[in-house]
Each structure stands twice: as C-alpha cells, then as structure tokens.
Write a structure and sequence with these properties.
CATH class of the largest domain: Alpha Beta
Number of helices: 8
Number of domains: 2
Number of strands: 16
Radius of gyration: 22 Å
Order of helices and strands: EEEHEEEHHHEHEHEEHHEEEEEE
Helix content: 25-40%
Largest sheet: 6 strands, mixed
Oligomer: single chain
Structural class: alpha/beta
Strand content: 25-35%
CATH architecture of the largest domain: 3-Layer(aba) Sandwich
Distance between the termini: 39 Å
C-alpha cells in the first residue's frame, strides 16, 4: 500500500492547468518533483495537501481516499517554502505549536528530541525567527512540521535561497534525518544536484505534466528528451550539428576532437569551466584544473543526445 497516490489528478490556477497526472509515493520512500519554475510543482503539492481543490481525479493516503478531506485531517506534515514561522514565538514555541494545540503532555520531550536530531538546533531554541540564520529557520520549519505524528511529509523547495555551503550541509542533514525517521516524503526541488543527493525517485515535470520518472541518477544518465537533458545540466548544453552534449560529459583524449580554448576560470578545486570552439562552434566545457594554461586540448565526448 502506498503512503500517497494520485490518480488522474487535474487542477487549475488562473490560466495554468495541471495534469492529468498519476503519482505514487511508497512507504519510506523519498520522492522528488523537479522541473523549471512555473511547471506546476507547488500547485501539485498544494492540491495533494488539500490546500487547493482539484478539478478531477482522486488522492489517496495510506489507501484511504482524501480528495476532498480538510488538510488537518490528512495526517501530513507540510513544510512551506517560506518557512512560515510565527514571528512572535521563539524557536522552541514554533516547534511546539502543533503539540500545544493538542495539549500534548509530552510536548517538551518531543521538542527537545527533534531539536537534538537536527544538529545544532538545540542551541537556538530561545532565539526569535528574526535572529536565526537561514539554515536554522529552515530546520525550525522542518522540526515544527515533523514533531507530531504524520503519515507523509510534503516539502516545498526546502533548499531555495540558501548559499551553496549551507545548502549542501542542510540537504545532508535532512537526508540523514529522513532516513532515520523512515517516513515517506514528497519534496519539490529545482536543482538536479539536490534531487540526486536526496531523492530515491523523481518525477520530472514540464507544463503541468510528467515527462519522465525514475531514479534521479538514471534520469541524469538516460534523459528521455532534450528538455530533461538540459534540466539536468546546470551549465546548459552544447550543440554540434544536430547533437547536444553537456559540458561535463567530456574527457581528455589525444585521439579526440580538437578544442581551441578562449577563456577558462576556476569552478572548484579540481575543475575549470572553459569557453572554446570546436570547428567554429562555441562550446562550454568542464576540464581538469591542470588545463588552465592551455590554448588547445583534445577531448572525447562521452555522451551525445540527438
């Protein structure tokens, strides 16, 4: 039995229409929704949560139909993109809020336990939201959403508006927490690196519909279309004739194609990002850092898409 299932689900906001889509989240599975801004990811999440009424179709949670059930009766945890913290509550009371509503006698124990599981959050329990770093605001929102009993976690772009260092640290922490909890998760993502790092399976969305699904590493390796190929290439695509390839899908090869490099800059400790030309066509390539002083290199393109 799936933790969450949507069948032939359609929804609309303004002139934008979502679906029909079919979706499943198995128990204990982390599933990502990935696609460009405006493709319908958040609308789908809100429709599944009962925050937006569908046009047609059905939603099931733990085998029970909840299509028109009120959100608070669905047994879900929802982590909003903007965190939605109460500015007049400190971190402790923000986390405790769902438990205080139910007058849970174990509120203090549960708050302390969840804060401890989210490394470092225990040190911020007496801080106001305005005093929290961006990463701690996100952890507070996650703690509040997951401190009570639930059937599934819905997360809307938890890594947005975070710098790279905090982003990497936070997704590692969240992945570890989710694995330890063993709960089912549906999470909206924009970055393929986030999807590969955190999701067991992804649905790729475009213009309100799913265009591919599967293990994110398999989607990266075997994209079903040039749209998916480009979505999973954060540095864009190169075009040679009718063929497309990603900047990272190359390796040095003395018997390969000659590239005239025009500008190179550091990308990380091991790679440089270079602009160059192959037979007059402009390309962008990731190359080993020792190529930084070269004007010509020879490469083999590992993967084409035509």
């Amino acid at each position: 039995m799936e933790a969450l299932e949507a069948r032939n689900l359609r929804s609309r906001i303004g002139a934008f229409e979502l679906g029909p889509v079919d979706l499943k989240v198995n128990r204990g599975e982390i599933v990502g929704l990935i696609g460009p801004s405006g493709c319908g990811k958040t609308l789908l999440l809100r429709t599944l949560a009962g925050l937006h009424e569908p046009l047609e179709g059905k939603v099931f949670m733990d085998g029970n139909e909840v299509t028109y059930l009120e959100p608070h009766l669905r047994g879900l945890a929802f982590v909003f993109q903007d965190n939605a913290l109460f500015p007049h509550y400190d971190t402790h009371d923000n986390i405790a809020f769902p438990l205080m509503l139910k007058k849970d006698e174990e509120t203090e124990t549960k708050v302390q336990k969840r804060a401890k599981e989210l490394d470092g959050l225990s040190d911020y329990l007496d801080r106001w939201p305005r005093e929290l770093p961006a990463g701690m605001k996100k952890l507070t929102a996650i703690a509040r959403g997951t401190v009570r009993k639930f059937n599934i976690i819905l997360m809307d772009e938890p890594f947005e508006r975070l710098d790279k260092k905090i982003r990497v640290e936070l997704r590692t922490l969240i992945k570890r927490l989710l694995m330890a909890m063993g709960e089912s998760v549906l999470v909206v993502l924009n970055d393929p690196e986030d999807a590969i790092a955190i999701a067991d399976r992804v649905y790729v969305m475009n213009q309100g519909k799913f265009v591919q699904q599967g293990d994110p590493r398999e989607v990266y390796s075997e994209p079903s279309s040039s749209f998916v190929l480009e979505l999973f290439s954060t540095m864009g695509l190169n075009r040679l004739g009718n063929a497309l390839f990603r900047p990272q899908d190359v390796e040095l090869d003395e018997n390969g194609v000659e590239v005239h490099l025009e500008h190179c800059g550091p990308y990380d400790s091991k790679r440089i990002l270079c602009n160059g030309r192959i037979d007059g066509s402009e390309v962008v390539l990731f190359l080993p850092i020792f190529c930084k002083d070269r004007s010509v290199v020879k490469i083999r393109i590992l993967k084409f898409f035509t």
